[in-house]
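Still learning. Show one?

>
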Amino acid sequence: MELLEEVKFLLRITRTHSIVRRYFVVNGFDGALTMLGLIIGFLVSSHTNLTVIINACLGAAIALAISGLSSAYISESAERQRALANLEDAMISNLQESAHGQAVTRMSILIALVNGLAPLVISLLILTPLWLSNAGFALPIYPLYAAIIIALLLIFLLGVFLGRIAGISWWRSGIKTLLVAVLTAALIYLFTGL
């Protein structure tokens, strides 16, 4: 609980709630669409072994996570350092050892973790039916179709989350993100299924 309280405190003093949410949604959406694209690509290709599909998708998920972690840490750290320097100039004081100074490093790490873990976790959820099928579990539908359904559901839920944040119709917001996913799937199918 102490760590959670510290995170809440740091979010409050740095006013980064919206940044963390935005990174979660944006990179979660990227992870879901990337997995959707890969799975549809494999679906329209000649029969491919599930292990190959899992490994390719897992490789993409790990790359998205590392990209998200590193890019967010580098950019957020620079932005936080700049904001701290501006605050130090305004207060004519060194704030490196203050709560604000410590927040620079800690919030950069938190934002990087959210940015990197969002696509990884969402990708792993989407890959669950592939792992289950590969491990010998009988699924009611073909594992690639199950993965597509999970991807579409997660994309819809990200839209619902955005709708709730914006205070607009969660249903309409979920449908909007779902339409983006369906359009993406249709384009992938159109260009790879030829």
Q: What stands out?
A: The chain has one domain: 2-192.
